[in-house]
Amino acid sequence: MEEKNYEAIIEAILFTMGDSVELEKIAAAIELDKKETKAIIEHMMQFYEDDSTGIQIIELDGAYQMCTKPSMYEYLIKVASQPKKRVLTDVLLETLSIIAYKQPVTKAEIEKIRGVSSDHAVSKLVEYNLVCELGRLDAPGRPLLFGTTEEFLRSFGVQSIDELPVLSPVQIEEFKQEAEAEMQVQLDI
After folding, report:
1. Residues of 65-100 as b/e, b for ≥16 C-beta within 10 angstroms?
2. Angle formed by the axes of helices 107-114 and 90-102, to 10°?
3. pLDDT in the model for residue 178
4. Distance in angstroms (rounded) separating the CA atoms of residues 82 and 77
5. The whole model's pTM is what?
6. Which sign does the torsion angle of CA 19, 20, 22, 28 carry?
7. Pick the CATH number of 3-78 from 1.10.555.10, 1.10.10.10, 1.10.260.40, 2.60.40.420
8. What percent of the chain has pLDDT over 90?
9. Domain boundaries, the chain
10. In the CATH scheme, what architecture does the domain 90-188 have?
11. For residues 80 and 65, is the Cβ–Cβ distance under 8 A?
C-alpha cells in the first residue's frame, strides 16, 4: 500500500469512530509502527489546517480525533438545533480545577480543600463528561477516585493535563491569604 491509502484508512477510522483513537490502535490497524503512523497523522493534520477544509485532526493525550473546526460552528448551529450551553459556575470551576490538578482524587480530598460538601459539583462535572470515575482507592471504605476526561481536554484546548498552567509559589501564597481572609470574614459573621 502507498501512503495515500494509509491516509484514507486513518481518515476512515477517525471519522467512523467519532471519539479519539489511540495511536497504538491506529498503527495496529494499518500494520505500521507507531513512529510511521504518527508521521502520517501529522502530515494529515497539516493538510487539514488549510482554510479550505472544515474539519481537523486533534491530538488528545496520545490519541487522535477528527472533529469540526471551531470556525465552522456558526454554520452547524444554523442546521442543527443549538446545543445546550453548559454553564460552569464558580463552584464547578473550583471543583474541576482541584480534580484537574490533584487527580486521581477522592471526594473527601476535594471537600477537605474546598471546606464544603462537593457531591453536587462532582455529580454535575460527571454529567457534563468533564470528570469521570477512575477506580477506587485502596483504603478503608474504598472511596471513588475522580479524574478529568478527554472532553475536559477538548473543552479547555489542551492536549494533556501536563499543559495546564503551573502556579508560582507567590500565586499560591496569595490564594492562601485570600482564603484565610475569607474564612475569617465568615467566622466573624
Report:
1. bbbeeeeeeeeeeeeeeeeeeeeeeeebebbbebbb
2. 120
3. 75
4. 5
5. 0.58
6. positive
7. 1.10.10.10
8. 52
9. 3-78, 90-188
10. Orthogonal Bundle (1.10)
11. no
Q: pLDDT tens across 121-140, in order?
A: 999 999 999 999 999 988 88
Please identify which residue in the block is written with the cell numbers 454553564.
87
**How far, in Å, CA of 9 to CA of 19, rounded?**
16
Q: What is the pLDDT of residue 4?
A: 60
Handedness of CA 118, 124, 128, 133 (dihedral sign): positive
Contact between 52 and 148 under an 8 Å Cβ cutoff? The reply is: no
Averaged in consecutive runs of 10 residues, what is the pLDDT profile of the chain (189 residues)? 74 91 94 93 92 91 91 82 73 92 92 89 93 91 93 87 81 74 69
Q: How far apart are CA 185 and CA 84, in angstroms?
A: 37
Burial label, 155 (beta-carbon count in 10 A; 0-12, 13-18, 19+): middle
